[in-house]
Amino acid sequence: MVRHPLWRPFAAGSNAARQAQRVAFRQTEPGPLQPHDPRWVDAYRVVRSAVETALGPGVRIQHVGSTAVPDLLAKPVIDVDLLVPDVADEDSWLPALEAVGFRLLFRDELGGSPHRQLSLAEPNANLHVFAPGAVEPQRHRVFVDWLRTHPADRRAYAAAKQAAAAGTGSLRYNDAKAAVVYDVYERVFLTDPAHPHDPHPRV
């Protein structure tokens, strides 16, 4: 079967599994879901400015996640992807980010690529560090772009978020909404004219 280059298999418990790679806990808790706040764009600019102060201008950085999608319910945490030449060479980027307030939370892999997750207290943010060419930042971008232009999927994702936040089961928040996320990606890949993709429904 043909698979889109950004496809990843469905893994409902992946967020719970990665907790073993945790280094520390975030400075500020995420807080509850809330309607989209136009000020999140300005919060992203503050995060970007902090990264540029640490690493210099010209950094490869983008606003991703639900706070980057107008009209989407979200927890008030700014998700940001940062690309650095060598993720494993932490001495070349981590101390400078820590000096401006970021804290390392995770050392792990996402989509087969090295990944580091940092947090910032104010504005409350996640900074995801990847190498150029990593699959996950590309997935983040197409997901955001799709939700911005597809209201039905935006509503379905918001409903999944509400159900996940209200759930009392064993799944963590991100894992509880993973099924809807996977299904949205399937629609993204099936309509991409640049890459063939055979349907890969969840088992």
Order of helices and strands: HHEEHEEEHHHH
CATH architecture: 2-Layer Sandwich
Strand content: 15-25%
Based on secondary structure, the structural category is alpha+beta
CATH class: Alpha Beta
**Envelope shape:** globular
Low-confidence stretches: none
Total helices: the number is 7
Calculate Rg over CA atoms: 17 Å
Mean pLDDT: 95
Biggest pleated sheet: 5 strands, mixed
Cα-to-Cα separation, first versus last residue: 15 Å
Helix content: 25-40%
For this structure, the quaternary state is: single chain
CATH homologous superfamily?
Beta Polymerase, domain 2
Strand order of the largest sheet: 1-2-5-4-3
What's the short story on this structure?
The chain starts with 13 loop residues before the first helix and ends in a 13-residue tail after the last helix.
Your description of this structure?
The chain is α+β, with helices and mostly antiparallel strands and 203 residues long. It has a single domain (15-190), classed as Beta Polymerase, domain 2 (2-Layer Sandwich), CATH 3.30.460.10. Helix content is 36%, strand content 16%. It contains seven helices and five strands, in the order ααββαβββαααα. The chain has helices at 14-17, 40-55, 94-99, 135-149, 151-166, 173-176, 178-190; strands at 60-64, 78-83, 103-110, 113-120, 125-130. It has a five-stranded mixed sheet. Strand 3 and strand 4 (113-120) form a beta hairpin. The two termini are 15 Å apart.
